[in-house]
Structure formats: C-alpha cells, structure tokens
Records
---
Amino acid sequence: MSAYIVALIGSVLILLGIFELLRRRQLSEKYAVLWLVVGVTLLVVTIFPGLLGVLSRAAGVEIASNLLFFVAIVFLVGVALHLSWEVSRLEDETRKLAEDLAILRLDVDEHVKRTTSGPDGKS
C-alpha cells in the first residue's frame, strides 16, 4: 500500500471522526468549524500532494514536510493558548458561582433561624 493511499485513508478517517463527534454532540460547534477546516485542509493536501510543494516553495521552505510541521506546531500552540484562556475564564466563573452560593446559603441559614425562632427570638 502506497503512502498516498495511507494518507488518503487517514485524512478521510479524521474527517469521519470529526463528523461522528459532531453527530454525538461531543464536540462543540465553536470548535467543530476549526477542526473541519483542519480536516478538509488535510484531505486537500493529501489529494493534491504537489500543492504542499508549491506552498513550501512560495514560503521559501526547502522541504515541504517542514512547512507542514511548522503549520501544525503553530496551530497546536494556538489551540493550547485558546484552551488555556477558556480554562482561566471557567475557573473565574466557577469561583464567582461558589461565592454567590456561599452568600445565598448564609442568607438561607439566617432566614431559617429567624423563622424557627419565636417572635421574642427564642425557639
């Protein structure tokens, strides 16, 4: 089996995996577009292997695979940065929700103490 066939099968499997994750609603729509672009780009580069050579010569990169690795690394660093931003935002939101819950719990406890005690403050 040639490398071309293996790459083509791999690209199609990646696209099918993305569609399956979308179908099962395990991949959010905001990330789905990004991964679909990656999957389609991989499929196009696989179908037209000369395209990567043309792009690498245009970018001034000697070896086409180096351009592919560079783009992949830049993409993955961008994804890691975005996910770090999302985690930071969610941690802040979780902290605020925990503070609001603590305040509400205190209010409920005080309300229960007032209602269970008699009008003179004795239970």
Note: Helices lie at 3-23, 29-47, 49-59, 64-116.
---
Amino acid sequence: MDKIAAISKRCRIFCTLLYGVVLIGAVGMWVFMTPELALMFGADVKQVIITPATKILGVAITVIPLSVILYGLYLLINLFKNYEKGQVFTLLNAIILRRIGLLSYIWVICEVIYSTLLVLVLTFQNPPGEKILQITLLPSSIIPLVFGSIIISISWVLVEAQKVAEDHALIP
C-alpha cells in the first residue's frame, strides 16, 4: 500500500504541474501567435492574418478544449489524492473514473468544435472569398472514445464490486 501511495503522490504532483503548464501554455500560445505558428497548430489554410481581435477570439475558443483538459486533470488530482490516503476501492473513486471516461466523449465533441472555430477565427480577417469554414473529424478521434468506454467499464465494475463488498460486510 505504501508503494501505491508513493506513486500516487508522484502522479498527483505531475498532474498539478501539468495543470499549470497547460493553462499557461494555452493562453501564451495566443499571446505569441503568428501566422506560421497558426499553420503549425493545424490551421490548414493558405493565408492567416493575426490581429489583436484574432488573439482575443483565439483565447475565447481555446477555453472549450482547455476546460475539458483542466477538469480531467482536476479529477485525476483528486483520484490520486484518494489513493495517497489509502482509499483505493471506493465508490467515490469509481464515480471519478466514470467522469473521466465521460470526459473523453466530451473531448471528441470539443475537438470538432474547436478545430472548426479555429479555422474560422484565423481566417475571419481575410478578404471576402478567402474566409474558410472547415469541419474536421479525424480518425484519431476514435481513440478517446475507446479509452473512455474502457474507463467507464472499469468504473462500472468497481461500483458492482463495492456493492458486493457491502453485501458481504452485512453477513455475520
């Protein structure tokens, strides 16, 4: 049990650091956004004009996937915190795992919305006829759906195991 607590503490610290890095990185990305950087981040367009309005809108649309990532890290931090305390097979942890699984479904939806809005924001300053609305759904979007389904299944098993353990505890 000590090994689980030690590894969980490391994972919790890593997730906490990652929380800060993701938050600072997402906002910083738009502060230093250039047309070349926009093309690197997947904007599949010919011409990009970056203005202060573009950067403000960029930060606004980045909140969509950022909120999902930050909430997922928050859930992981709480999960590892519970493991550190020795609370491994609890109903609360099963609920946290279920939420993480459901979050992966939401992530896929947010990814489609974000990529669509990203191209729209990056090209809205372009002259008429060069503005682009592009909806992208990549085959790699299936991976979060698969992992989310696996995590939800594991949480379901944990909930059922918790019920069985409670039933056995009632038998004298």
Note: DSSP finds five helices and no strands in the chain.
---
Amino acid sequence: MRYALLINERPEAYEGLSADERAAISAEYTTLMKDERMLGGERLQPAETATTVRVQDGEMLVTDGPFADTKEIFGGFYIVEAGDLDEALELAARIPATRLGGSVEVRPLVEL
C-alpha cells in the first residue's frame, strides 16, 4: 500500500546546528530517498513563500503565507510503498524532523 509521509518541522529546528550537523541531517534525508520503498518526495520552499487560497461565499480570498496556527510548518513529503502501516511508521521514524521537535503524519493514499 502507498502512504504519504507528511513532514512537519519546527521552523527553528536547524538554528544552532553546525555545518557538519546540518550536512549529517541532509545525508539522512538522502539515504532515505535511496530506500527502495521510497517512490518519491519533495522538500518545500520556506513557509514564507506560501500562498493560501480560500473561497467564501463564492469569492476567492488569497493571502500570503500559510497562516497556520501551529508551531510546526509543512516542510515536505515522501510517497512510499510499504507492506503495512507498521512498515510505513518505521520509515517515518527515520525522518530527522521527528527527533528535532517536528512530526511526520502517515496517511494511506487512496488507491484508484
């Protein structure tokens, strides 16, 4: 079954880390992408680049930024092929954001 691993990061998670520590974290993400169960994924630009669209009473409202009332921001995602939820959870736990104060939402994809 395919799952989306939705990565939520703390915006300040990388502050104070040395260049070597940042490189080590990037290497972990690269290693994850080489796992045969990874079907794809992308890292998003910073939250400041987001634009949010809402429709109220038939009128489109566009605002800058995500304006999510949360301490975490949506930073990227992976699409994986896993045998079951436990396998998807194991992959999610390997994502560095999970130990840097962030979280990963694991959600099965609708199979068409």
Note: The two ends are 12 Å apart (CA to CA).
